[in-house]
Amino acid sequence: MPGAVEGPNWKQAEDIRDIYDFRDVLGTGAFSEVILAEDKRTQKLVAIKCIAKKALEGKEGSMENEIAVLHKIKHPNIVALDDIYESGGHLYLIMQLVSGGELFDRIVEKGFYTERDASRLIFQVLDAVKYLHDLGIVHRDLKPENLLYYNLDEDSKIMISDFGLSKMEDPGSVLSTACGTPGYVAPEVLAQKPYSKAVDCWSIGVIAYILLCGYPPFYDENDAKLFEQILKAEYEFDSPYWDDISDSAKDFIRHLMEKDPEKRFTCEQALQHPWIAGDTALDKNIHQSVSEQIKKNFAKSKWKQAFNATAVVRHMRKLQLGTSQEGQGPTASHGELLTPAAAAKSVLSPCRASGWLLLSRLLCGVGSGNDPRAVPPALGPWIQGQDPLCMRDWGQTAPLLSLN
Question: Given the DSSP bridges, would you call strands 33-39 and 45-52 parallel, antiparallel or unpaired?
């Protein structure tokens, strides 16, 4: 398998932990796990994607595709692949760590947010996706959850992550595999028609729409009705949410969310639109309306995401405060106890053995000798209300953990 991939040589390691100090579980995928780790030699923090080679049986093509894509990419707004190791029965992709948190979280935390802010964000996404398209790469799964801030700085750049569905486009070819996230996928994909890099431009249009109002252009509890809306490209600029948004912004979105992929803006065309290249983006503060809608419409997705960016943010803030100590969580002496609402933002996959430990450590200081019974009594029922199966697995995996 290694020989099939272009790029830096694969490195062999007897034990990857001799090279990297594993810190926290950041996320899990279908057959991988992402770990926050520190290079023991340089003290550089990285994200390591750990893949059990046994789990790749029958999926080698998918994994090789992701690695081949990442090896080709060198862009300031795209997460980089630094190295690859083979160790024991695992493959380890050493990825650039992005520590600034998720797009939606940053918007909600802001006290001031404007069209111009949204325009600057979309410019960075367009520039990065144009770069991909010029290389013949189609991302195919662009969505806000895959847009992360590089660091905690107020003016941090945005980074595109997650290339699990990306595909190299052969010259003159068309793609036909149905993939992507339903709310962001282009009509031609749902129609099972051959498609091209234009699908990414549609997704950017959907993201721009959400950035300006806080809710998705297409929504229905019934998937069939949702798909019908997308297939017809039926969306509105609803009042009062769009009353203060410029006509230029709406025009920009219409050109990207054009049903006909032949008429849809390319990234190059979108970059030349006045809302991006000119000065038509308004400076009026739309934070209150947008943040309220984001909290209302996207809160539950925290339990389903593939990467826990919030855990990285917390880790980086601890480092900034000088309170980071290996193996310790935020106990009473290290910071405030997180509320149940914050728990939803802080935990990924609590139904895994590593997940319950991470949850208890991050929320309550459990672990490293701390008493598991320190978990607040109210936390158990709250989690059970969110996900009963999670509580069932939690109880089986960690019988000593008292939640009552």
Answer: antiparallel
- Kindly report, as residue ranges, where domains of CATH 1.10.510.10 are found in the chain: 103-301
**Domain 103-301 architecture:** Orthogonal Bundle (1.10)
Q: CA gyration radius for the chain?
A: 22
Omega of the bond prior to 240 within 30 degrees of 0, cis? yes
* Upper half-sphere CA count for residue 222 (Cβ side, 13 Å): 4
Q: What is the pLDDT, as a whole number, of residue 181?
A: 60
- C-alpha span between 265 and 267 (Å, rounded): 7
262 HSE (CA, 13 A, CB side)? 1
Using the predicted structure, report yes or no on whether residue 247 has a pLDDT greater than 90: yes
State yes or no: is 162 an active-site residue: no
Contacts of 38 (CB under 8 A, 6+ apart): 20, 21, 23, 44, 45, 46
The third-level CATH classification (topology) of the domain covering 2-96 is Phosphorylase Kinase; domain 1 (3.30.200)
User: Are the C-beta atoms of residues 388 and 399 closer than 8 Å to each other?
Assistant: no
Structure token pair of residue 189: 């994909």
Could you tell me if 376 and 347 are in contact, meaning their C-beta atoms sit under 8 angstroms apart? no
Residue 347 has a pLDDT of 37
User: Per residue in 31-56, pLDDT tens?
Assistant: 678 899 999 999 999 999 888 888 76
Band (pLDDT 50/70/90 cuts) for residue 316 is low
pTM attached to this predicted model: 0.69
> Catalytic pick from 24, 105, 117, 141?
141
Per the model's pLDDT, the better-predicted residue between 89 and 261 turns out to be: 261
Annotated ligand binding at 54? The verdict is yes
Residue 17: which pLDDT band, with cuts at 50, 70 and 90?
A: very high
Q: Is 189 helix (H, G, I), strand (E, B) or coil?
A: helix
Over residues 151-167, the pLDDT tens digits come to 999 999 999 987 643 44
Reduce the secondary structure of 369-395 to three states and give it as a string.
Answer: CECHHHCCCCHHHHHHHHCHHHHHHHH
What's the pLDDT score for residue 27? 78
Identify which of 84, 90, 69, 83 has the alpha carbon closest to the alpha carbon of residue 162: 69
Q: CATH 3.30.200.20 in the chain: give the residue spans.
A: 2-96
